[in-house]
Amino acid sequence: MKHIYTGHSTWNQGPGHQAGKASSTQKMGMTSVTSRAIAYAAVQARFAICSCQDWGADDRDFSNEEFYWQVVEMIDDERHKETIKYFNEKLFKSVGGCGPRKSAAERTKEQRKRARTSAPS
Q: CB-side exposure of 121: number of CA atoms within 13 Å?
């Protein structure tokens, strides 16, 4: 899941780790994990371990679309709220997700402002 949403260089890093370019979560404005995000990752993982050579809605007797919607339905069930909480902790360092990440320009502007206000007069 981390590989898909935060990039291949973050798979073994701590929650919320960011390395290099903006992650898929940042590009999409994703601030918390949803049942659909988990289902997408499950479909991708299933395809990675199957013997199929080409991607399709169906491969042999397996329906990727049906599998996707079954995962969404299962995760949306009240009994699986801990799953959403777990993935939010792993991807965003927070149970409820996180707010959008500030750009480098915004962070630099804030740092300069803090430096000006804390500088001796």
A: 1
